[in-house]
Amino acid sequence: MSRSTGLRTPRLDRGKLRGREALLETPEWRELLESLPVLRSFFAGDPGAHGITALLHGVSIYLERLFDSIDRGAPCVWYNLGFNPELVYALGDAQPITIEMLGVMHNLLGNLDRSLAFIDRAEAEGAPGDCCSADKLAAGAMHLGLYPSPACTVGINTPCDAQVMGTQVMAELGRAPFFAVDVPYYHNEETVRHVAAQLRLLVPFLEEHTRRRLDIDRLREVCRLSNQMTETLWEWLDWRKLVPLTQSSKLVAFTLVLQILFTGTEEGLAIARGLLQEARERQERGERFFEERCRAIWYQDPVWTDMQIYDWFERDLGLTVPVDVFGFYAHTTLIDTSSLDSMLEGLARKLVNCHPMARQFRSDIDVYIQDFLHLHEAWRADCGIFAGHVACKHAWGGIGLFKEACRRAGIPLLVFEFDMFDPRVTSYDDIFFQVERFVNEVVLPRKARGRG
Amino acid sequence: MSAEFLQPFWRLCEASVPEPTARLRDSGRPIVGYLCHYVPAEILLAAGAQPLRLRGVGSEDSSAGDAFLSGRLCTYVRHVVSLALEGGFGPLGGVVCGNTCDHVRRAADVFRKKTEVPFVGFLSVPRSPRQDLFPYYRRELARLYSGLCEALCCQPSDEALWEAIRRMDEVRVRLWRLKELRLGARPKLTGADALAVHILAQTVPPEDFVALADPLIAALEASPGLEPPRAKVVLIGAELDEPAYVRLIEGQGAFVAADRLCFGARSVLPPFGKEPTPGGASRGDPLDAIARAYFFRPSCARMIGDFPARHEALLALCREAEAEGVIFERLMFCDPWGADQHNLGQRAREEGALPVLFLTREYGIVPTGQLRTRVQAFVERIEIQRARRGMAWGAVRP
């Protein structure tokens, strides 16, 4: 398979992006910025689309803040997608940067040439072809020198081995002090305490390298916002339990994006509120854009390369996805803001027990299966769709036991292989064909027989 | 002369449960398999078990494992699980896995749910060899030891742990000596032979290993050594337990003077039962001594943020072994070693001193044509580099 996209991006000196203008000279940043107003005007046609509108607005603010911080020479902290940035937001003007961000955003905007160029670049630099494309998006962007150099980097081993690769590459290319957060295998209080103890060490590490003091009142405010966003997400997900689903399926996966980029910010809360408002209003108005005939729990990875595929599932097949593994935010406790220790423990609990994927992927297969069975029941699904990202070893490693659990529970399951960021592995048409056949030949006939 | 002493190592390597271990089982000693070198054999020995580093040797078809693990996991784990599901290891008293990688982690699920193994232990090994994470690993070892003792109906004790350390130190002393015999202008042991020896050190009772190793060492010491090789290399990577693969590499002129393989020299610690360990362990606490020795050992690629230390250690090893190149082998689908592949490639390109050959492999298959061609080309590259610098063999230093 040819990996060439024909794009030619000059190699930048890593860490030479001194200001907003330097950043905007790169097509990767310029195109991203230019796409946002176009998308906003596109969704403006639907005055009820509060969720996506708030998300696009939030991204604009995030980028503006990023550019400002670069202009001011504020310290940047790189981290991988298993981490949440609340602590960084409490360090004055320090700017958190998720290393997967640029590639994922281009993917979401449909600008695949750019994201594929990141993947190709990572492979050309030595990343194996069988490794996760999320990490290759990150590695490619770092190789192209597209992020301002970090004051320090933070790596966490969740949700899976792929992140272990992403963090190692980040540590090597970031050329800045690195802090590893270790999340153990077990789901118990010892794990929470173990992670909280490391966050306690992370604070002085961040302070030393960003030269910013952690402001405890600011942290309290960040945690309060984080809690509010969490509660709003819980309420939003409850609205999506209602049958039929009135809000687009594709929005649910954005819970993960919210946690990685926006948790602890006003924008994060605004986006969550937008999603909730949209779900509530559409339900109350009884809006129907499609006739729901069946609903699936989409387990594993969304089709980030073309989220419109969910619209076509709805329109052509009557298939909705009320929740998926990236969208599910588990009901556990909120962050106790009474002291620094209680906040660190709350943040640790959030990282290990709530963060989508980290909760399900890091431990034994039982947690993974139990969450699926819970989602299937609580969101009243008719079937499961295991959209197996090719490089997701933990998931494929559990496929036999997962299938067995579905069979025992009487849940029809579709299993297919694709790459969530690279349509060259499995095409849009192939994915659609497999889902279509599953829905029409398995799920709907079964439902008609009264077994759904 | 040494060939006759090497022959038993090669022969015994061909079985997933070598004959001395099987014999011990027949006498009533439980066999406990384990899947990674972060699982200390001493813990298993002290619990009255015979440790067996699990290998997929003898598995011709991984389909039993694939049914649960899919075809997207590394073939080493798939073959091991297949063997276990098909009874290829015979009755096991227990298995110990860890979160050392996603593949081993998922193998643990299958052992728990799909085999009759009475005890499936698990070690959550911290992802970074940092001092503040050490107590967690030590607690994990303590939990494993008490769980294993309970399962095998024996009493945990410091004495049993010290005795296990002493027995394993006997093995380590021999392995350390064999490592020395691989060095010098006329090395006395090939990389393939060394791997066969290392494998046996992890799969047979310590006393049986010592009985085989002592005459081998004596014979090697008396031998004049091998002819100077065309090029010396260091072989690094993950789960390679196929000496035939190394032999094929060496057959093309790339003599493996040293290695950092999971089944090879990375599994060998310096003896730590007699002297205080580098981390300053109390000699009074055997569990602490074991935990320190294993946790702060030369790290596997699964340890985050430790690549600079691994790279430094690799360069030091190349200097010690007078190696002029590195061969990096990786099992397909391995993410942790994928990261090191990327990072090592970056450093090799930037620093330029040390040529590296990257090989991706599948377990249980020794490819011939392609591997030969690539290694031959690599050896030629080393020779050209040497000639350009106008240096004699051995004068090129990383």
Write a brief caption for the model.
Chain A is α/β, with parallel strands linked by helices and 452 residues long. Chain A is built from 19 helices and eight strands. In chain A, the strands form two sheets. Chain A has a four-stranded parallel sheet with strand order 2-1-3-4, with helices on both faces. Chain A has a four-stranded parallel sheet with strand order 6-5-7-8, with helices on both faces.
Largest sheet of chain B: 4 strands, parallel
User: What is the approximate shape of chain B?
Assistant: globular
In whole angstroms, the N-to-C terminal distance of chain A is 40 Å
Total number of beta strands of chain A: 8
Approximately how much helix is present in the residues of chain B? 40-55%
Estimated share of beta-strand residues of chain A: 5-15%
SS element count, helices of chain A? 19
Radius of gyration of chain B, whole Å: 20 Å
Task: List low-pLDDT spans of chain B.
Answer: none
Overall pLDDT score of chain A: 92
Poorly predicted residue ranges of chain A = 1-14
Number of distinct helices of chain B: 15
